[in-house]
Amino acid sequence: MTARRSKSERAKSERTITAPRGALALRRGGSGAGAAVAADFYSDKVTPATREEMFPVVMGAVLLGFMALIVCFSRGYVLLYGDAVAHLGIARRILDSRNPGLVQLGGVWLPLPHLLMLPFVQKLEWWQNGLAGAWPSLASYVLGVAGFYRLCRRMLVPRWALVATAFYGLNPNLLYLATTAMTEPIFLALLIWITLLTVECVDAIRAAEQARAARRMIWLGVLIFAAVFTRYDGWVLGAAAWCVVAWHLWRADGMWKRVGTAFAVFTLLAIAGPVLWLGYNQHFYHDPLDFLRGLYSAPAIEKRTSPPGSKHYRGWHNVGWALLFYTRTAQVVAAAWETGFAAMAAAVAGLWIALRRGTARASLLLWVPLAFYVYSVAYGSVPIFIPQLWPHSYYNSRYGMEMLPALALFACVAIAAWERRVTKARVASGDADSTSAGAGIPVRPFYLAALAVAVANPLAMIYGTELVQRCAALIERHPSNLLANYEPPLVLKEALVNSSTRVPFERNLALVLEDLPPGEPILMQESDHIGALQDAGIALRQTINEGDYESLHAALQAPAEHAAYVVSFEGDAVWKAVEEHPEGLQELTILCGTGQPCARVYQSEHYGAAGSTTGR
Predict the structure, then answer these.
(1) What is the pTM of this model?
(2) Which end of the chain has fewer beta carbons closer than 10 Å to its terminal beta carbon, N or C?
């Protein structure tokens, strides 16, 4: 009896340590779905997420997204990025143009984000205030958070999946981008869901579940097609996902024949995107690689924006510097102050643990942006500048956001593994888990500390500088040089700095354009300052711009004959045309601003006169 009683007590003790959720549900008298959710949360088993788990995650993402929109919209942050204004302009001109249609998509930026904005941007007010771009980004944010938690549950227990999702979803840089017309929120959602479906597809192949594997392949192909038309990172991501699925399918005996049709559709969808985009460039711009070597390609932009005689940026044809710049940027956009080093170190450790265990190796797709951007910085004329590294300026810092899912997930993989190791050591030594007030809920220091960090991190990124400076003032000390180096969230800071001259310049130009007679045609190159037309609420079909090559080319030969008003920016094609053909143009206004090219507004004395070659 003594031996039997000791064995029973020992089993009871082990159940309390490894599965306290059952005791929790019974002691509280819980039952049904609520008890099941509580039990799952304190489980030590890695299982796919349930609907009960997903619901609060989705609702939390919706709440956070709309809170971010209210804050950013009320403070005028939505249109700070010039690229956001340009994305809205491209979406608007698909229908609002002298030559409407797909040709207005342009040949460099990929079209899916613009097509998603298309239903919203036709409302003039939403185009002007930027809300037209916010709706697709907010939806992508919510979908991204939901997919990220579901992906985390393939590798982590519920409590650690919650920590990882909180670290990801609460990031203030991500929340800011989710209120703009930038493409990062859309691509992050696609990156997460492509990784998730690849993991699920591989699991289905291993389990010889034909129907589930076929469904995952079809959906995966659709998402790869979408990613290819969102960012060029998606081309590499899609190829990597296809290789992962094809490898596991080749290794699975007999699965080729059973899912051959689905795999063929998956393959066609994966290659259709690049082929269509190359064909689009060939048809409209007579060069299938116009996006790589055309007038608005990255190398051309880098050449135009670099001062004459200047050296290339650090990282040019140097993989080491490129790796340093990109990883440092990823750290700064992910974590407050210098804690990004710890996040990166933990993520690398989690990556090593995942590789050793061989669990959900397809989740390594989250690291694809690292290779893509290191190559892009080194060999693709894509510089990244952050204040922490020379030349201490702001440019393309948002690219670091694409490492956020990998940092959040794999850092938690490492910390969760450490927690399990410490717990096993305590159990082996005979120590029992401490409990809170006898309620049966285990106090897990690693989890509580990590959750606190995940919640405190965005607060520190938003308010850290102000709090530190106030504390320094309270003790009657001036902030040290170290304190002076603290910055607000990097992506928002870049938008504020780089828009400080463009926004007032375009606003002043918009005031001039508002005074022009409505409906009169305006000759203007819109690439760099379409925000002035947006601010003034002028329909794009009223302008002669680079969106219609034939009309623009004819107008440049005789500006006064083709437009009632001409707006030129120093150095652009219209400026040169006015210098060569100034006949019949009367200068009305000159606008100059710091860091911006001077703009000149002319009125035509010939437009509409008898014998004019054009009509209204």
Answers:
(1) 0.88
(2) N
